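Review form for a predicted model. The reviewer records the input and the model, then writes brief findings.
Reviewer: anonymous (R2)
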Amino acid sequence: MPLPHFLLMLLAVIVAAAVTLWVSVSAGVPLIALLLVTLSAAALLHLAQRNRHDHDNRHGH
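Model under review:
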């Protein structure tokens, strides 16, 4: 991936995170609720990806 595309993608992610925080705080959502939702989503994503790449080849595939 070329550097300008990577930097543009990184900027888009940072802007999206800032907008999400701003909208959530403006709507009166407590920051602790955002923290819990974010941590829960990260844990679920981690657990979902955990068994996807089986490098031991235990299943004979």
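Findings: The longest helix spans residues 3-26.
Further findings: The CA atoms of residues 24 and 34 lie 8 Å apart.
Recommendation: see findings above.
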